[in-house]
Amino acid sequence: MRSSNYWLITLIAIALSACGTIAPTDALTTEAPDTCPVTPAPLSAFVPPAPFPAQPPTAYAGQFWYGTPALWTMLGADGSWGGLPKSAGGYSQKVFWWSAGYRASGMPVPALTVSGRRLDGPSDPLLAARATNASADFGEAMLVGVVLPEPGCWEITGNYQGHDLSFVVRVTP
């Protein structure tokens, strides 16, 4: 029995050492605070113009349309982006944008720009790829990949044909 306890303790020690070390508490300050003023679903739901669906498809449960006919996006009801792919540059997310006047066939590279800034502390700015087009069960859309350098409370702004749309999201690791 003594020998089996030795091996059990040795296996537990190996498993625990593989888990790494606990981060110091000051490293946790990159988390977005619970006070992050995330963009809530409006009391009166935005309904996109035809031919777009009145609500996001059921595959996007917990999401809502946010914006105006000139520019809108789809946001999560909890206001968070979590579990995003992480690279050396930060956390990646794809953001879909729509406009009543956008047609992919007429503008394969949409004139949409996206920017962002962290609200709860210093950070490098958000990096946004050039917009492209996308088509899915929710109609023709513009798609922009963004990289957020670190978790936190972020304000994201899209601009398309002189129309701005901003929202706030909590980014968690």
Walk me through this protein's architecture.
Strands 1, 2, 4, 5, 7, 8 and 9 form a seven-stranded antiparallel sheet that branches. A four-stranded mixed sheet has the order 3-11-10-6, with no helix packed on it. It is mainly beta. The chain has one domain: Immunoglobulin-like, CATH 2.60.40. It is globular. It is 10% helix and 39% strand.
Strand content: 35-45%
- Oligomer designation: single chain
Question: How many domains is the backbone divided into?
Answer: 1
> What's the CATH class, please?
Mainly Beta
Question: Separation of termini?
Answer: 43 Å
Q: What is the N-to-C order of secondary-structure elements (H for helix, E for strand)?
A: HEEEEEEEEEEE
Number of DSSP E strands: 11
What portion of residues is helical?
under 10%
Structural class: mainly beta
Q: What's the CATH topology name?
A: Immunoglobulin-like
Mean pLDDT: 83
* Anisotropy-based shape: globular
Radius of gyration: 21 Å
Contiguous low-pLDDT stretches (5 residues minimum) are: 1-30
CATH architecture: Sandwich
Largest sheet: 7 strands, antiparallel
What key phrases describe this protein's structure?
173 residues; mainly beta; Immunoglobulin-like; 7-stranded antiparallel β-sheet; 4-stranded mixed β-sheet; 11 strands; 10% helix
